[in-house]
Design a protein that fits this description.
The protein is α/β, with parallel strands linked by helices. It is built from six helices and seven strands. Helix 6 links the parallel strand 6 and strand 7 (234-237).
Length: 238
């Protein structure tokens, strides 16, 4: 696999999709750097990676909704990981419900966690990634970031945040088109949470199978494992 022996920072790696992705990337030979709001929150993911692969993954505290925390994390990545080959922007705050039910704090945190934090982290690691052979910046957006999609259970702030992420991916891909950095994104629809440690992860799909964490992780690995001259700019999966 192309990601083997390459170092990737992964945000939101404490649970859910981020944890599953970090575990499966490590199992495929990658060297993950795990980011979440606190290092303590990453203990389970780090322990699973160590048990499965023998790796001691590096941990960085990063609250994406807090600009100062994102700055500190970006500096830690830039100064502590000059061999970084890519970053996967997965962390974001989920916010359902009607617009009038959201607080001002919720709105600010939702948009900051999905968009502002990712931009800050990216700005700090860009010089490193530009110096690496064939680096990657990958973003987990959502079908909420696809134009003209119904809200379903997502809120207006969450949808706005995901459209901001989509704009980040499009703009950054254009700006970095002449560099060795590949900018890609996956847009998953609603999916069921399944952990790599669950028996369901390895069982065949039932006839009524719906999208799960396993398929989303598989789609991301499919994108990242392409030859570097092949860029799957966006992949919508439902």
């Amino acid at each position: 696999m192309r990601i083997s022996n390459r170092k990737f920072a992964i945000t939101g790696a404490a649970r859910g999709l981020g944890a599953a992705l970090a575990i499966e990337m490590a199992r495929a030979g990658a060297r993950p750097v795990l980011l979440a709001r606190t290092e303590a929150a990453l203990d389970t993911t780090a322990r699973t990676i160590r048990d499965l692969t023998g790796q001691n993954a590096d941990l960085i505290a990063c609250d994406l909704a807090d600009r100062e925390s994102a700055t500190r994390a970006g500096e830690a990545l830039a100064h502590g990981h000059p061999d970084l080959d890519g970053i996967v922007h997965n962390g974001a705050m989920w916010l359902p419900g009607a617009m009038e039910a959201a607080t001002d704090t919720d709105i600010a945190a939702c948009i900051a966690s999905a968009a502002i934090g990712a931009l800050i982290l990216t700005r700090h690691v860009l010089p490193i990634l530009k110096a690496r052979p064939g680096a990657d910046i990958h973003t987990v957006v959502s079908t909420s970031g696809v134009p003209n999609r119904p809200l379903n259970v997502a809120s207006v702030p969450f949808t706005a945040a995901k459209h901001a992420q989509a704009g980040f991916v499009t703009g950054l891909a254009d700006e970095l088109s002449a560099t060795g950095i590949r900018v890609t994104a996956v847009y998953p629809g609603d999916f069921e949470e399944v952990a790599p440690s669950s028996p369901d992860w390895a069982t065949p799909e039932p006839p009524d199978h719906t999208l799960s964490t396993r398929e989303v992780v598989g789609a991301i690995l499919f994108i990242l494992n392409q030859p570097h001259q092949v860029a799957i700019r966006s992949l919508v999966i439902e």
